[in-house]
Structures are given as structure tokens and as C-alpha cells.
Description:
Elements: E1 2-8, E2 16-20, H1 37-43, E3 58-63, E4 72-77, E5 82-86, H2 95-110, H3 115-120, H4 128-135, H5 143-156, E6 161-164, H6 170-181, E7 186-196, E8 199-207, H7 254-263, E9 272-274, E10 277-279, E11 293-296, E12 310-315, H8 321-325, H9 329-336, E13 342-343, E14 350-355, H10 358-376
Parallel strand pairs: 5-6, 6-7
Antiparallel strand pairs: 1-2, 1-8, 3-4, 4-5, 7-8, 9-10, 10-11, 11-12, 12-14, 13-14
Helix pairs in contact: 2-10, 7-10
Amino acid sequence: MRFCCVRAKGATAGWLEVNLERRSIKDKADERPTLELVELLQQAPEFVGYGDELEALPRVLAPLPNSHSGRVFIAVDELGKIVIVGCPDQSSEDGISTMVGDLLGASGRLWHQSFKTLAEMFGDRSGKNLIERIKSRVDNFAQEQWGNNVQKYLKEGKFPVVIVVERWDETVNQMMEYLKQMNLNTRLITFNFTELDGLEIVMPMVVGAEPKEEVVKPPATPYLEYTPKVSSLSKEESKPQRSYESFPQEGTSRQQQVILERLVYIDDIGLIRRGFEFFTPRALERPEAEGTIVVAVDSTRWPFPKPNEVIVVVRTTREHLAGFLRMKQEEVEDFLKQLPREEKKGYRGVLLLYVRNVYEANQLVNELKALKEVSQTGVR
């Protein structure tokens, strides 16, 4: 049994999902006509779930509000599961990096949000539009259980990611390796586009490249320099790339220096850096100020990092990061505890985040940026 999307050739009607069984189709990858992929996804959200052993297919899809790329979407299936969908513009040099920037902030913008926030993306805070759209595509829709599942997924904040591309190339491969290092549950879909008996047929293909056993040199990650900006009131503004002051290198190992080159991007969350410490503006007014975020590199001082690692100490209390972001302390800690390398060590209000390579440094920076976005979306 094979699923695909079909429409009459040249028709203005939308794409429809069909089941192709016992039919022979010759793919014409080299003769592929132009396909508006975003249009396909919006008209046939089920395409996002093809090729995966899912309990249910996504039935509705809406663009992520206020995104820079306009190529990140939120999909919901008939059982209430929420999926984040990225469809990069591969015709633009910056298309992938801009989409990845939006993608990294998408989970944070939904985490701990209400059903009304999700429903508003589909045009109606009451959820009527969202529910009616699912009902129109599903028989025997269990609305009450679906609503409970939606609330559950919003609270947990663990949303799978599906990337849909027109072609699979080295740039896309590097993007997927980067997203996997962010510990995102990510799947890549491309497609074959052909014509048969007056029909245009789009057949999805899941790309499942096996990860390399050993990485000799980390791939370039231009996505790190992009910081998504969340604002429900103002228009998007393009900003010139800023420069970042390096950390002091005295007493650091070569491995630590490579990690520190990535950790400079912690500056983007708005704290004030002095040496290896980041302070809130209010803390600097005190005679004896404690850093809200402290980057530890000295193996002879607490928290005693090894020569090949850096430990980032984050104080999460209201006097520090929670107060700076105007969030509850437990919300800040719950968000950062999603990092698999987090170890609390029994210190109340302090998280020790171990950074042992460039990938973990990138992930930590992006988690902190996403946390800042969460604070800007109204989570309390």
C-alpha cells in the first residue's frame, strides 16, 4: 500500500490524499515540473506523516506566527499530537539558516502554552476552526480525548520535527546533522513528482541517512548566528550581524577554547558579561554581585571542570535568571533540564550544564535563546 497526493493536471483545485494500490507508476525525477511545496502541505497536511509508522496522520497545518522565514508550520493530527514542520526555501542562500532559526524557537513558543494559543494559529482562539477542520477530514473524531491529548503535548513540550525538502543535497544533510545534535526528534521527507493519465502525482520518500560513527571535523553551523525574534506586536526587523567579544583564554586548554568560541553567543540573551561571568543589570548595582551564568574553565576551582570540558553554572532563582526573564524558577529549571547533560549536584537554585564539545555548546546556547523566547511569549 502506497500513499501519495494527487490533483488533476493544471487544475486549480487542491491536492487530495489517495491510496495507490496495485498500480505501476514510473517516476520522472529528471523531468520534475515545478511544485509549490508550501501549497501542497497546506492543502494536504497528511503528506507530513507519510512514510512513518504513525498512529494517526496530521490533519491540519498552519504557519508559525511572526516567523522570519515563513517556512515553519504547526501541524496537529486526529489524536491531538503536535508536529513542527519545516520547509526551507532551497532557492535562497539564507533560506535554510533562516528556517532553522525559526525552527529552534518553535518548541519554546508552544511549551506550556494554552490551547487558545495553539487555536489562534488556526484563526480562532476558541478552537472552533481547528476542530471543524479536523472533523472535515476524519471520520468518528473523538473530540474530548483529542483535546486532552493536545493539552498534554503542550505541557510536555516535546514536539517531533518533520523537514520537507524538494531535493536532498549536502546542505540539507549538514542541516539534519545539526538538528540531530540539538536532540530534536527529526525526520526528513522529499518526494518524486510525476504525471499519469492526466494526474499530477506527488509521492513522498523518507530519507534515513545513518549517522557517522566518528566525526573528524564538525560541520559548519551558520544557523547559530541567527537569533529568532518573537513579537506579537511589531513587524520583523532585519539586524546587521553583531560582533562578539572573545572569552579570556589564559589558563584554558585548546579544547576549551574551541567550546568557548561557541559559548560567546550566550551574549544574545541580554545579560552583561564580565570575564567568564554574566550578570543581570540589577546585580551589577550591588557591591558584591554574583554571576547569573558562570562559565567555569579552571580545573582547580569549583565546579572543577576537566581540561576537555567547560561547565556552565546557571543560577535560576528570582534573584537571577528567573527574575531577569520574569518567569517562575521551576519553569526555567524544567526547560533547561531537557538538556541530557544537566546534572544538578544538589545545589538549590543552581544547574550545572556540562559542555564537552562544540555540538553541546551550540545546543546550550540555543536552549538559552529559546528560553528567552518563551519568556517573551507570556509564559509565567
